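Hi all, posting the design record for the shared folder.

TITLE: backbone redesign
STEP: 1 of 1
STRUCTURE INPUT:
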């Protein structure tokens, strides 16, 4: 009788121990804690022991980014210009301010009597535009009127590009002006120089257009 009881007790202890072991091995970490992605809800990831919405930006939808484990909307994100403000365009999925309108030719300062007017150029060009030739014709008349024997022309550029390139571009602009003016008024001695972008002051296309010029100085 005692042997039977002892055997039964051993059986009970064994069964309880196995059940406890199964229970312990089958119990995972408490949500939102995790060991693997399987411990998290559908669509979540186990990151540093916690269930989170994302690991990186690729886990988020279009127009979102992963920030501290959560997918958040990207500020200023756009698919089309209609997603942006009235003064913005959608460029590379970002709302950016529209560029200022560029006038084809900056209006020269109105002359007061006879004065030598600056000549302006297009971007990265030393070719004389129609308005530049008109200004040079007026300058030639002014040179005759004031009996100017010596004239110096300085070429300028906007601030974009290397110093070496802009010095060469400024020189080509001055030479282009000197050649054309010399054909109109050959009795005047003309010299040229270039300051490149050294004296440029523009901050945008409108003011850069005024940096691209050739100026005149009586000597």
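Okay, here is what came back for every position:
SEQUENCE:
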């Amino acid at each position: 009788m005692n042997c039977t009881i002892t055997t039964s007790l051993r059986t009970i202890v064994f069964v309880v121990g196995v059940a406890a072991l199964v229970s312990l091995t089958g119990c995972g970490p408490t949500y939102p804690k995790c060991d693997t992605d399987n411990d998290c809800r559908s669509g979540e990831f186990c990151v540093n022991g916690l269930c989170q919405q994302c690991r990186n930006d690729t886990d988020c939808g279009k127009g979102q980014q992963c920030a501290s484990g959560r997918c958040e909307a990207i500020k200023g994100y756009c698919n089309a210009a209609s997603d942006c403000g009235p003064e913005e365009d959608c460029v590379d999925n970002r709302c950016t301010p529209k560029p200022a309108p560029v006038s084809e030719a900056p209006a020269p300062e109105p002359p007061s009597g006879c004065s030598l007017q600056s000549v302006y150029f297009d971007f990265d060009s030393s070719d004389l535009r129609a308005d530049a030739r008109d200004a040079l014709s007026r300058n030639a008349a002014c040179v005759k009127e004031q009996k100017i024997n010596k004239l110096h022309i300085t070429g300028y550029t906007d601030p974009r590009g290397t110093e070496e390139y802009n010095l060469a571009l400024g020189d080509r602009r001055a030479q282009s002006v000197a050649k054309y003016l010399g054909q109109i008024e050959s009795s005047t001695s003309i010299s040229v120089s270039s300051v490149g972008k050294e004296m440029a002051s523009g901050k945008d296309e409108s003011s850069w257009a005024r940096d691209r010029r050739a100026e005149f100085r009586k000597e």
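COMMENT: The chain has a mean pLDDT of 84.
Let me know if anyone wants the other runs.
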